[in-house]
Design goal:
The structure holds 2 protein chains of 2 kinds. Chain A is an alpha/beta fold. In chain A, strand 4, helix 2 and strand 5 form a beta-alpha-beta unit. Chain B is of the alpha/beta class. In chain B, about 45% of the residues lie in helices and about 10% in strands. Chain B is built from 15 helices and 10 strands. A 6-stranded mixed β-sheet of chain B has the order 3-2-1-8-9-10. Chain B has a 4-stranded parallel β-sheet with strand order 4-5-6-7. Classes of the chains: A alpha/beta, B alpha/beta. Chains A and B meet through helix 3 of A and helix 12, helix 13 and helix 15 of B.
Chain lengths: ~280, ~375
């Protein structure tokens, strides 16, 4: 076995140079070079399947990945969304071989990138960070597109999984949806150091310690969280790095999703009653 | 064109037995020889191998294909079949013909090579389609007779109808009745006209008035939904949109594909390669290259700066035009490049029928919702 502290619940986001070390672990293989990712996908000798390939540079020609093994998902990470927007069309052939998601950092021009990505039938994950009120307004517009857009057929995260969780009344976690749950996702640096995933990757804290400590801390220190109706799935997700981040905007997003979930549940119940010949 | 299916528009001849006023092609007597066909097809099959494409459809258009002989077509089919078999590829064929030269001698070709179906063209009312001599009415009478004979021979005939000002004046009800009730056609598609090729007086009326065209399309949709759909009548592009909004399997017409430059390519009898038949015969500046001269189709496509402009078009429209704000971007992607170019003189402009498309999308989305609701009631 390689150097990973194997835990079959954990997915490791690793640079392609570390593939051998993680041959027995579920991994996301990341690189700026599509050829390297193609070779990873074509490589033999893995005990566990690749979770997905992560292409870190949307300006690169993703042509080599159009020939990857069928079914292997690709996550295309955008950098400067305004400059890279038009390039999304160049990556559409990737969908012929398997699912493709575009990860969009919420910043200037991100809403346009999300609009275009959904128009091209890419799934989308928005990295929200701690959104300003202007960004919340943009996120609400995107949420409206996701909920009501006639041409949107693919998930936009985190909206999709939160809506699904609220609809099914199941327990779910925003940290997991955003692939930042320290107990489920790890980032492996070029030098081999393992850390928390996503925006927490520069934290020095051990993952287990972080996840035990952080929600307790925000509950104890932030009255807002202790009274918040969304804490069950949010667990203070938006209270990092700035613990004083005001959540009013984020709550508007959650409230819209909850309203949509209630509407959906009512529709499903009505449809079910109709199927059983009951009055609607 | 990786992994999916290759669509090749093949013009085996630029000769035509008609002289339609609004045609966008510059005609010539050029025709493909079987030797040249072998070279072209060999390079197409090599390209399919390179891109791991298992199958192709060759769409035979002209000029007019039926100015060639049935025997030549059958030999061409055999040449392609043998080469494809050796290459381990599957090739199917589709035909677009004006049917003017159709006779029983074509039946074997139509049944064996083209799966007992053909596309053809007629407008209502016919103002621009003519033979080399004679009136539009003469042409229409001849076409009606030939289409009927082909249908009686077991050939499924689909019609492309190009709308004109008179179409809009006479209205959707008469238009629909002409094709479905008078001509007995169960599958037709309405195309919007554009002033491609050499300027003529007829082309001055293009593009059509958008308000009139919107009203026409909406009326046609209403008539088709109420009278035609349940009888199995297909009316493009309305049927494609209905399927799309009902989440049924669908193939969008070329004008609304995500990027037509990734979906198909066209070759003329001289080996010229361009985006489609609208470009290859009249716009030499827009040729991607010549497949008889170039070593491979892959290299020709990859190094063509013209094709790069086509590839970049939808992305540029999303970035620079208003398309990004449009709720229908995912359906339209800026529309057809040749309509944009021939109206605005600029490839990187939106399709001039943008407003018409938006209204049509909205109308068909509403129809799909009503139709789905009706289906639920019945279930």
């Amino acid at each position: 076995m390689g150097s990973c502290s194997f835990d079959d619940r954990v997915i490791y986001n690793i640079p392609v140079s570390r593939m051998e070390d993680y041959a027995h672990c579920p991994v996301v293989a990341r690189s700026r070079d599509p050829r390297e990712l193609y070779e990873v996908a074509a490589g033999k000798g893995r005990d566990t399947p690749l979770a997905y390939l992560q292409l870190l540079d949307a300006r690169r020609d993703s042509g080599p990945l159009t020939r990857r093994a069928p079914g292997v998902p690709v996550d295309l990470v955008m950098g400067d969304t305004e400059k890279e927007l038009a390039l999304l069309y160049e990556h559409t052939p990737l969908t012929a071989r398997g699912p493709v998601r575009v990860t969009v950092p919420a910043g200037k021009g991100f809403a346009g990138a999300v609009r275009l990505a959904t128009s091209l039938n890419f799934a989308v994950k928005v990295e929200t960070g701690q959104p300003s009120s202007a960004l919340v307004d943009e996120l609400l517009k995107i949420l409206d597109l996701y909920l009501h857009g006639a041409t949107v057929t693919r998930p936009v995260e985190f909206f999709h999984s939160v809506l699904s969780g609220l609809c099914r009344e199941e327990s779910f976690s925003l940290w997991e949806i955003q692939e930042e749950d320290p107990l489920l996702f790890r980032h492996v640096h070029e030098n081999g150091r393992e850390s928390l995933a996503g925006r927490f990757k520069e934290c020095e804290e051990a993952p287990v310690v972080f996840m035990e400590r952080f929600p307790k801390k925000v509950l104890e220190e932030r009255g807002e969280c202790s009274l918040c109706e969304y804490f069950s799935f949010c667990s203070g997700y938006f209270k990092w790095p700035d613990g004083d981040f005001p959540c009013e905007g984020v709550k508007r997003i959650f409230a819209t999703l909850r309203e949509a979930a209630e509407e959906l549940k009512r529709d499903l119940a009505r449809s079910s009653r109709k199927q059983h010949g009951e009055p609607t | 064109m990786t992994g999916g299916r290759l669509s090749l528009i093949l013009l085996p001849t630029l000769r035509c037995n008609a002289a339609c006023d609004y045609c966008f092609e510059s005609k010539s007597r050029d025709r493909l020889t079987l030797d040249s066909l072998k070279v072209l097809v060999g390079k197409v099959l090599d390209y399919m191998d390179e891109k791991e494409i298992a199958g192709a459809t060759f769409y035979w258009q002209g000029g007019e294909v039926m100015t060639l002989s049935p025997d030549w077509l059958l030999r061409a089919r055999d040449v392609i079949g043998e080469l494809a078999l050796k290459a381990g590829k599957e090739v199917a064929h589709g035909l677009q013909s004006n049917l003017v030269a159709y006779h029983g001698g074509w039946d074997r070709v139509l049944h064996e090579m083209f799966g007992s179906s053909t596309g053809t063209s007629m407008d209502f009312p016919n103002r621009y389609r003519k033979l080399q001599s004679g009136s539009p009415q003469d042409y229409e009478r001849l076409w009606r007779r030939k289409a009927k004979e082909a249908m009686e021979a077991g050939v499924q005939v689909g019609v492309i109808a190009v709308a004109n000002e008179e179409t809009l004046k006479q209205g959707a009800a008469r238009f629909y009745s002409y094709f479905v009730e008078a001509a007995g056609v169960a599958d037709f598609q309405v195309n919007t006209p554009f002033p491609g090729g050499e300027p003529t007086d007829s082309k001055k009326e293009f593009p059509l008035n958008p308000e009139d065209l919107i009203r026409f399309f909406k009326d046609l949709a209403d008539i088709w939904m109420e009278r035609g759909l349940s009888r199995g009548i297909r009316v493009g592009p309305l049927d494609h949109l209905l399927d799309y909004f009902l989440d049924e399997p669908h193939v969008m017409p070329c004008i609304w594909q995500e990027n037509c430059a990734r979906e198909f390519v066209c070759v003329d009898p001289r080996g010229n390669v361009a985006q489609c038949d609208c470009w290859v015969a009249s716009y030499p500046d827009f040729h991607f290259g010549n497949l008889l001269r170039e070593e491979s189709l892959g290299k020709l496509l990859d190094k063509s700066p013209v094709r790069r402009r086509f590839l970049e078009r939808p992305g540029r429209l999303a970035r620079d035009d208003v398309c990004l704000e449009c709720p229908w971007l995912g359906l339209c992607h800026g529309g057809c490049p040749v309509r944009a170019y021939t109206v605005h003189g600029d490839l990187h402009r939106r399709d001039p029928y943008c407003g018409v498309y938006c209204a049509l999308f909205e109308h068909m989305e509403q129809w799909a919702a009503r139709w789905a609701s009706r289906r639920r009631e019945v279930d």
